[in-house]
Write a structure and sequence with these properties.
This protein is of the alpha/beta class and 292 residues long. It is built from twelve helices and eight strands. Strands 1, 2, 3, 4, 5, 6, 7 and 8 form an eight-stranded mixed beta sheet that branches. It is globular and about 50 Å long.
């Protein structure tokens, strides 16, 4: 499940979705505009919130991510300190990955599973410290991989699947742009959740203390900021050469990782709508679609 199946990818379009917790609503907005404009993507590489919100593109559910986040932001069953203290997960497993996706605002599993769009969720194996790229074919079967992709260190339990232990894919590959390049995609759209001038600082979080049983994970986390900034620089290089399209927030909106301010959640989504609409003709031209 860690490798892709077809390396003949010239002419196909890859979509790379950065994480960023609730900043991911920017990505959700971009995907909603894509769906409204019938933008066809062949493969999606989603990390953390990029994976969790990105699934709505494959299931063709416009507005779903914004809808349930606004509706349940203040519900203690959803995510936050109550869930962290009672379950060990800031994002409540039972509510988010069971009640929400099956009952309250159901994911369209049938549409997801029947879609021709390939979808990969990035997870970090805490024992090896390496990224794994999990192909999500069956959303019900693979829901735990999606949960693992968004399980932030320090505020999440390890997610164990088939004997392997996982956490947030953003620790090992926060923007899987290099993966898209390595797999031979020459048309790549990258959706970032930080503004253009952002660079990541070295983390001061006590990875070595909390995760001392997993030295490879600690090592990966220690150098994560270098990996992130190197990837950003590579993206900027390709962007300057007009080889890729990059969408990133045109406005700075200060947000907490578990943001509950409804105005801020709506605001970052609205920026995503505005930015994507402003670039939609360029995107259509880039992927070879006719501009309607």
């Amino acid at each position: 499940m860690n490798g892709l199946e077809d390396n003949s990818n010239n002419g196909k379009v890859a979509l790379v979705l950065e994480g960023g917790a609730m900043r991911g609503l920017y990505t959700a907005a971009v995907l909603d505009v894509f769906m409204k404009n019938d933008i066809k993507i062949d493969i999606v590489f989603g990390v953390s919130a990029g994976a969790l919100f990105g699934i709505n593109y494959k299931s063709k559910q416009i507005g779903r991510a914004l809808r349930y986040n606004l509706k349940y932001a203040h519900d203690k069953r959803y995510m936050g300190m109550y869930s962290l203290l009672t379950t060990g997960d800031v994002m409540n497993k039972e509510f988010c990955f069971n009640k929400l996706v099956y009952e309250l605002d159901p994911l369209d599993f049938e549409t997801f599973d029947n879609s021709n769009v390939e979808f990969y969720a990035v997870v970090t194996n805490v024992e090896t410290g390496k990224a794994e790229y999990i192909k999500v074919n069956d959303a019900k079967r693979d829901m735990e991989y999606l949960r693992a992709s968004g399980s932030m260190p320090f505020v999440s339990n390890l997610v164990e699947i088939n004997g392997n232990k996982y956490l947030d894919g953003a620790v090992s590959d926060p923007i899987p742009f290099k993966k898209a390049l390595d797999e031979g995609y020459d048309k790549i759209i990258v959706v970032l959740t930080r503004p253009a001038d952002y660079t990541k600082a070295k983390s001061r979080l006590p990875f070595g203390l909390v995760y001392k049983k997993y030295p490879e994970f600690v090592k990966t986390a220690k150098f994560a900021y270098i990996n992130y900034n190197e990837t950003l620089n590579l993206i900027r290089k390709y962007e300057k050469e007009d080889k890729i399209i990059v969408l990133r927030p045109s406005e700075k909106i200060k947000m907490r990782r578990v943001e509950k301010n409804l105005s801020k959640l709506q605001a970052i989504y609205d920026v995503g709508i505005k930015d994507c609409i402003a670039n939609i003709s360029r995107i259509k031209g880039y992927i070879g679609e006719s501009i309607k």
